[in-house]
Amino acid sequence: MGKKTISSDFSHRYKRPAASPTPNSSSPSINLHFLSHSLPLTSLSLSLGAMAQTTPNHTQTVSGWAAHDTSGKITPYTFSRRENGADDVTIKILYCGICHTDLHHAKNDWGITMYPVVPGHEIIGIITKVGCNVTNFKEGDRAGVGCLAATCLKCEYCQEGHENYCDEVQFVYNGIFWDGSITYGGYSEFLVADSRYVVRVPENLAMDAAAPLLCAGITVYSPMKDNNLLETKGKRIGVVGLGGLGHIAVKFAKAFHHHVTIISTSPSKEKEARERLGADDFILSTNAEQMQSKKRTLDFILDTVSAHHSLGPILELLKVNGTLVIVGAPDKPVDLPSFPLIFGKRVVKGSMIGSIKETQDMMEVCGKHNITCDVEVVSSDMINEALDRLAKNDVKYRFVIDIAGGSSPSKL
Ligand code: NAP
Ligand code: ZN
User: Fold this and answer.
1) What does the alpha-carbon distance between residue 397 and residue 246 come to, in Å, rounded to a whole number?
2) Mind listing the pLDDT tens digit for each residue in 109-123?
3) Of the candidate ranges 35-44, 149-158, 225-234, 359-368, the one whose mean pLDDT is the lowest
4) Ligand 1 site residues, Cβ closer than 6 angstroms
5) What is the pLDDT of residues 270-297, one digit of tens each?
């Protein structure tokens, strides 16, 4: 395999700290010196891999599942986690959702994967240990962890509660924690997490069906909130791509009393989308006539598509001044023609997951409206099959791994 450089816009978010780990894993003094983006990823991986293995307080052995190369094949993998620090909680993982981002990472679609990668950022379980500084959680609590593992805590975005946009954000897997170790995600039996990045899970939500809220849920909730769709009713909203993110977007939009149109490549999804998810309209995006007949009908569109596509036809569906928010992260740039932007004074913007406060707020909203995801629970020996089916767009609508095995899903 040729040497890869970190070059795409998306991978810019994944900065690497220099190899000078701080001694205490729970210290918020994040390392501010970053390696050059042009450093070949292969040498980067090697140096960081060596560093992670020698991190002194990583004394806990964990069983998990990792991808080791671009085949994306997942195999059992034993690794170490840090001891539970003063600000940490330890979570026995019960369920972990399979996000398309896991697939992108397992196959190194974005050219940034540090193998072996233990994916999983839709993590839900029970707290088994709390550090001495942790006041808001106790043993036995239901807890959720999404994408965030560490942020600088000092920049304007961290201070204003938008820490997901911190320039030094580190993710729950394929990231670098404060102690310099590589982070490993939720395809594993337990997690040690800084309690700042942990949320509570309302008692009325089934644990398996709530797990995908930690990424899919917050990723669609945050831009809806940002665009005032929680307060105002009756807007005409489009959701492009009816997958993990898309289906929960439909549920939120309906709970907030909007008119929802699904824009999909899959005719087979129409009946169920209307009857079960409550979608008001369904446009087959591969049908030019249908797309043409719905021009200028929507106020807001959320694009959740994981593969390369053109934004032109989607933009045409927006009214003048309408907004398209991109959350899907294809490996190649999407086509963005200027004419539909100019002729409709339309706005295109992006959005990445949400802050911890927003995630907790979303959890409460889900508790109140009894919103969970439509999931297919799989055992840990079916992860590869699930990833293959996800790649083929064959899931309604989210796979969730029964990590603890044998748990009674909907009763937890
Ligand atoms: P998913 O379950 O696979 O859903 C993606 C949907 O996109 C599919 O169900 C399909 O819907 C549509 N699609 C797939 N291939 C397509 C193609 N070639 N052309 C047009 N549409 C296609 O994936 P997901 O877990 O929802 O994630 C979606 C994307 O969001 C991924 O790229 C993921 O990495 C990204 N993501 C971003 C964030 C963020 O913070 N911004 C967070 C999480 C995930 P139809 O069958 O209806 O067409
Ligand atoms: Zn995700």
Assistant:
1) 9
2) 999 999 999 999 999
3) 35-44
4) 99-101, 104, 215-216, 219, 241-246, 264-266, 269, 304-307, 309, 327-329, 351-353, 390, 393
5) 999 999 999 999 999 999 999 999 999 9
Centre of ligand 1 from the C-alpha of residue 375, in Å: 16
CA of 292 to the centre of ligand 2 (A): 32
Q: How confident is the model at residue 56 (pLDDT cuts 50, 70, 90)?
A: confident
Least confident of 33-47, 78-92, 157-171, 327-341: 33-47
Q: How far is the CA of 72 from the centre of ligand 1 (A)?
A: 18
Ligand in closest contact with the CA of 398 = 1
Separation of CA 351 from chain center: 11
**Ligand 1 atom having least distance to the Cα of 100:** 25
Type of residue numbered 269: K
**Which residues have CB less than 5 Å away from ligand 2 (the ion)?**
99, 101, 215
